[in-house]
Amino acid sequence: MAQHAVPSAAAPDARPATPVRVPVREILPWAIFAFVLAGVLLYFVGAEQGATSVFGGTWIHEFTHDGRHLLGFPCH
């Protein structure tokens, strides 16, 4: 007798898949971390130059220079 790839409804181990619930309190710290990290990266790529410069020198500007042009930020 041939066996089917899909178990029948009468099979004892055929249970419907139940979704896993993840509490918000477990996601919230990671969401805040991702938001802060994205903000810091956006600041360094988009605004760390000229009058808004927090760090002295031009090394951050030179390090993120190509990323600025790739993302459409003017820098000259």
What does this structure look like?
It comes from Actinomadura sediminis. The protein has 76 residues and is mainly α. The protein has a domain at 48-76. Helix content is 46%, strand content 0%. It has 3 helices and no strands. The longest helix has 23 residues, at 24-46. The radius of gyration is 26 Å and the shape is elongated.
- Total helices: the number is 3
The total strand number stands at 0
- What value does the Rg take, in angstroms? 26 Å
Quaternary assembly? single chain
Helix/strand order, N-terminal first? HHH
Task: Quote the beta fraction.
Answer: under 5%
Biggest sheet: strands, sense, closure? none
Overall structural class, as computed from helix and strand content, comes to mainly alpha
- On the 0-100 scale, what is the average pLDDT? 80
The span between the termini is: 76 Å
**Principal-axes shape call:** elongated
Low-confidence spans: none
Please bin the fraction of helical residues.
Answer: 40-55%
List its salient traits:
single chain; 76 residues; mainly alpha; CbtB domain-containing protein
